[in-house]
Amino acid sequence: MKNHNLFLTPNYRYRLPESNLKKLILSLIVLLSFVHVAAQNNINISGTVVDDQGEAVIGASVVAQKSKNGTITDVEGNFKLSVRSNDVLTISFIGYITQTVPVSGKNNIVVTLKENSMLLDEVVVTGFGLAQKKASVTGAISSVGAQELAHAKSVTATGALVGKLPGVNFRQDNGRPGAAPNIQIRNMGTPLIIIDGVQKDSGNLNNLDFNDIESVSVLKDASAAIYGMQAANGVVVITTKRGQKNQKLKVNVNGYYGWQLPSNYPKPASAEDYLAAIIQTETINGTPRTVTKEEYQKWVDKVDEDHTSFDWYKYIWVSAPQSYVNANVSGGTEKVRYYLSLGHIDQEGNIRGFKGFNRTNMQSNIDIDITNRFKVGVAINGRIETTDNPGLPGDDYNLPIYGAYNNLPTKKPYANNNPKYPAISAPWAQDSFGWMNYEHAGSYKDQWKVIQINGTAEYEILKGLKARGLFSYWLANRRQSNREYSYKFYEYDKESDVYNVVETGTARYTERSMEMKEELTSNIQLSYENTFALHHVNAVVGFEAKKGTYPRMYALGNPPANGIPYIDKTSLSNFTDGIGNPQTRMGYIGRLNYDYANKYIIELSGRYDGSYRYKRGKRWGFFPSASIGYRVTEEKFWQDVDFLKDNITNLKIRASYGVLGEELGTALSHIVGYNYNSGGAVIDGGLVTGSTVTGLATDNITWGKSKILNIGIDLGFLDNRLNASFDYFNRDQTGLLASRYDVQIPEEVGFSLPQENLNSNYARGFDASVNWRDRIGDVNYTVGGNVTYSRWYVGDRYKPRFSSEWQKFRYQAGNIKGRYTDVEFSLVSDGQFQSWEEIANHPVDQDHQGNITLKPGDAKYKDMNGDGLINDADWRPIGYRKGGTPWVNFAFNLALDWKGIDFRADFVGATAYTYVQQGFLRYFDPNKNLSQYLWDNSTRLVDIWDADSGFNIGKYPLALRTRNNSDCTHWPSDFWYTNMTYLKMRNMEIGYTLPQKWTSKVGISRCRFYVSGQNLFALKNIDIDIDPEITAENGMAYPNMKVVNFGFSVDF
């Protein structure tokens, strides 16, 4: 660059005469005066924003504090801006510490942003106008942001949260298309869902597009009290994405395509093993042969196609694609911010011939500053979701789920392998899989169309004093259409080349269901926030009301032919017109937050709630809460000790206590009602519709209450690279419903006493998390984990009664104060019988028949009371809860980034719950196949044709067709119960972001490709091929599939 300042050019030396010195000084004074005047004018500056590794920071916000001009950095981290020469720039970007830089007349500025490892400035949204910095939070609140959610490629938003939130438990008990994990906070029950300030149900959360979520905060303790009557189980607060001020237009397109791979399903036995099990049963029992040696050998040798085992598992369960695409646009000016998004997901079913699930989401958030003091916003979101399956009796999935066992491996699905002619392949013809498709069974479609409109307004009355209003309208329309055909089964006659009908199902059904849900929500608040020296105050009072109606109509017809889709008055067999079922709730809220010097923090809140369910006088309840926090590390004595200041950078102690209301019981139970169209009588030759009384009315029912205590500590070490938190909680649940038993009413009345608020339970537990974030060279990495323990205990019971001390011991769960609510009782096993001789000499009568039904390999039970008989008196507590969420849940997370390559892995696990081995995994059902696992691990004859050949004692008893669940070897015992522990790979993703110097040439600011997987493997303490999350003890649930996706994300 040419230098015009000769005084700074080193190649020249000047000597000023003394006579000219005064002139020079005067000139400089004039020049400085000019500069001072010019400082009031704008200058054009340019600059670059980089991270501490010298990499460009794309999209960083650069705002001039005096001129209020702003911009964002481009793909190379550069920016240009017109500012005052004496202005100050504020540079910020998510995940980095905000910096202020004086312009000082410079034309070019380079700013280095340091990664924010402290995380204390992270904003936690708790609702009702409060978004707190994490440092000032006094409640037990877990949160996760959009960046982490983006790496979990789940069909549902709930699935994207799994393993990321301490104290929040998830369990996905089936993998049906569109299915989502069940969510509980600290095993307390279903939480309240808040989406952009509006109460919704879990279905609305599940069907959000995870790409539209900005943040998720979970209120686990009494901090949830401000949300009122439905918040006793905790609150999940969802905030969707919005545009930012002075944000340049940003366009993002992302998507993936992948495959769902069948897994985690116990495989059925092959034809030869199925026949071997039949032969063994006949040999043991001495019954006539149904399978000859010659026929059996043909199956063993697979002599032809007709003697080759048919693998029903591989035939029914197939790999299926799933795809997702989302496009969103965001940006903003000084006055208007916007975010628009459109996404679609398609998840085909893994059952052959089933279409599956698809959903289209739309999200639109627009915010406008009408004036500096008046702001408005409009949010519109909607979705259309559809489930599509063949029309099968009952639950459309049950028959095919059981199909691998109901259909025998010696049979095939179609006569002569012709798909037009279903064959009988199961002992019960209707279980045959060949007809379970659209052509032969009919069709079922379930479709939701949902739209929600939120309008918001905010007016700043005085500095810090604001009035806010929210109005929401939500409309959901559901339409179900089910057509079930009559069907035929065929046999093929090779000689005549004719397909003969061998059985017919004559029932035909056409069902129509239309349901509409309509909800109106309004929320009005007055808030005040200000800082006085070291005192900071934030307060809000408000009113919230919600009204909903939920009408439904249902019709069932029996059409004369499969091709007639209509229901007319001649075919109508059932019609139900559900009333609107109106529901109304309202509440008055108040909250006060105060902190002194960001060290001593207090929050007080309360809500006065009313519900339509209860009678006047018991309709309203007041539910207060309070919390305190003490940031020890902000004290001067801490900052004065270098070792403490440098090594323990965050120490906060907090506690909370509150009373939350629970809306219990059925609506209007204080009024005597009648069930219309219940029964009837024939009068004068005609049927007169009858009605029945719903039961006795009761005045003694109102809110249940949950008193929740939480004590927690937050820790940060080494500049908060290492963070940890621990919370202990105690929940006392009172006013639970029960009926009195000591007031007698005549049996002729036909109903029992109504329920009242009589009982109580309580829970104790803790949750903890630890997280380490650091950098080694060019590698950024994060390792974290969390664990939750929660267990329920029996509280007060209305006059508990027991006929004996044994009964008191046996039925303690749920009845004795201080005992666990969910302990499993069963017999206690003592190994297995090894021989006929051991059975003959066994001194205890185990089968109540002198042990004549026992066989080598059978389970042997302990006679706990020594009476020589195995019965209920020998049952003992042997396990934890079954079916529900385990007592202990944990998760581990790993993240790595290196020169554009990133890796993420989420592991989830649980322990302290009971798995009970049932059904096909326990015994050989006479009308079905048995599991290959059971056959391979069961006791067997050395020679299946010879009863005297001896036994090879296996892990399980003999698998005999004549032994069912009532056989004594299959009685409930710890022989069949396992205290389950597992660790599961929930999500894994590896991606690569192309260098900006490549993508910027084609107008792309960021381009990333990745491959991800879900449910890739599980480590568990049982060797059965089932998913440890499912609750179906026989393994017969729609399995959670392994998923592999290939995807992309592009920013323009």
UniProtKB/TrEMBL annotation:
It is a multi-pass membrane protein. Gene3D superfamilies: Carboxypeptidase-like, regulatory domain, TonB-dependent receptor, plug domain. Residues 134-235 form the TonB-dependent receptor plug domain. InterPro entries: CarboxyPept-like_regulatory, Plug_dom, Plug_dom_sf, TonB-dep_OMP_SusC/RagA, TonB-dep_OMP_SusC/RagA_CS, TonB-dep_rcpt-like. Pfam families: CarbopepD_reg_2 (PF13715), Plug (PF07715). GO terms for cellular component: cell outer membrane. Keywords: Cell outer membrane, Membrane, Receptor, Signal, Transmembrane, Transmembrane beta strand, Transport. GO terms for molecular function: siderophore uptake transmembrane transporter activity. The keyword Transport applies. It is found in: Cell outer membrane. One of its GO terms (biological process) is siderophore transmembrane transport. Belongs to the TonB-dependent receptor family. This is TonB-dependent receptor. It comes from Bacteroides cellulosilyticus.
